[in-house]
């Protein structure tokens, strides 16, 4: 079971430490960025599963981060905002933030927002219990496990991200570039070798005959597509 990785972008150490401790105690992994520049570096080095974003950062407006992330990724973003700054929240949502939480907030409210944002990050094609099922393959987004004929497939974080990204876009071709950016970040090496290597490993784990895949198809010269039933 892989823990979702959450990036906390927050310059007030008391708050970021509180959030981080809360997340770590509730089965999430967390990382802290103290300013906008640091956040941009961390996001593009390895895309988190969710971003908790304080809008009032010392070096830039948090909305700048929403703009730059939304140019290449749909990773859920929850904005952390001060009471009374409603216009700021509206602007953040218009720019593509998924939700907001108002300071000061409690643990249960924070965790509820995170659960919802992770669940809604893409719920297309999912069963009521938040799974995607294709033939004998089952992606369980709540437990973060993937099974084939009921057996858990052991995956790396990267392999899991690739499969779930394709699963969230069932039936749709995703370009090499789109996958590279969403899994490795916007500065991913644009040659597709690293993706090809990972896909070969995924197919060895998923497919009965990796040379004739039935779950993830290659669209030559374009990208990959997970078949829809
Ligand atoms: Ca702040």
Please describe what this structure looks like.
A 5-stranded parallel beta sheet has the order 2-1-3-4-5, with helices on both faces. The mean pLDDT is 91. It has helices spanning 13-24, 36-45, 62-70, 86-94, 107-120, 157-168, 176-184, 193-206, and strands at 5-9, 29-33, 50-54, 77-82, 99-103, 131-134, 137-140, 145-148, 151-152, 173-175, 216-219, 223-226. The chain folds into 2 domains: 5-120, Response regulator (Rossmann fold, 3-Layer(aba) Sandwich), CATH 3.40.50; 131-226, Arc Repressor Mutant, subunit A. Helix 6 crosses helix 7 and helix 6 (157-168) crosses helix 8. It is of the alpha/beta class.
What's this entry about, in short?
This protein has helices at 13-24, 36-45, 62-70, 86-94, 107-120, 157-168, 176-184, 193-206, and strands spanning 5-9, 29-33, 50-54, 77-82, 99-103, 131-134, 137-140, 145-148, 151-152, 173-175, 216-219, 223-226.
Topology:
Elements: E1 5-9, H1 13-24, E2 29-33, H2 36-45, E3 50-54, H3 62-70, E4 77-82, H4 86-94, E5 99-103, H5 107-120, E6 131-134, E7 137-140, E8 145-148, E9 151-152, H6 157-168, E10 173-175, H7 176-184, H8 193-206, E11 216-219, E12 223-226
Keywords:
229 residues, Rossmann fold, alpha/beta, 2 domains, Arc Repressor Mutant, subunit A, binds calcium ion, 4-stranded antiparallel β-sheet
Terminal residue distance: 26 Å
- Listing every helix as H and every strand as E from the N terminus to the C terminus, the arrangement reads EHEHEHEHEHEEEEHEHHEE
Broad CATH class of the largest domain? Alpha Beta
CATH topology of the largest domain: Rossmann fold
Mean pLDDT equals: 91
Sheet/helix structural class: alpha/beta
Largest sheet: spatial strand order:
2-1-3-4-5
pLDDT < 50 runs, ≥5 residues: none
**Largest sheet geometry:** 5 strands, parallel
Q: How many beta-strand runs?
A: 12
* Structural shape: globular
Oligomer designation:
single chain
Looking at CATH, the homologous superfamily of the largest domain is Response regulator
What's the architecture of the largest domain, going by CATH? 3-Layer(aba) Sandwich
- Number of folding domains? 2
Q: What ions, cofactors and ligands are bound?
A: calcium ion
Q: How much helix is in the residues?
A: 25-40%
């Amino acid at each position: 079971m892989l823990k979702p990785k959450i990036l906390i972008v927050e310059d007030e150490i008391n708050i970021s430490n509180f959030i981080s401790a809360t997340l770590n105690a509730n089965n999430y992994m967390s990382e802290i960025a103290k300013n906008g520049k640091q956040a941009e570096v961390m996001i593009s080095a390895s895309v988190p599963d969710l971003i908790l974003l304080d809008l009032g950062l010392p070096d830039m407006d948090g909305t700048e981060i929403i703009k730059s992330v939304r140019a290449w990724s749909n990773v859920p973003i929850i904005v952390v905002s001060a009471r009374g700054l409603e216009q700021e929240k509206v602007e953040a949502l218009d720019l593509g933030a998924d939700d907001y939480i108002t300071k000061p907030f409690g643990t249960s409210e924070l965790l509820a927002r995170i659960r919802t944002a992770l669940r809604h990050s893409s719920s297309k094609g999912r069963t009521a219990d938040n799974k995607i099922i294709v033939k004998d393959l089952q992606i369980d987004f709540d437990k973060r496990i993937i099974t084939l004929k009921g057996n858990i497939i052991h995956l790396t974080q990267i392999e899991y991200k690739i499969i779930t990204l394709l699963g969230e876009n069932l039936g749709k071709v995703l370009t090499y570039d789109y996958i590279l950016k969403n899994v490795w970040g916007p500065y991913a090496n644009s040659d597709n070798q690293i993706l090809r290597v990972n896909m070969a490993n995924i197919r060895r784990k998923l497919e009965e005959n990796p040379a004739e895949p039935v779950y993830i198809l290659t669209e030559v010269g374009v990208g990959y597509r997970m078949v829809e039933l």
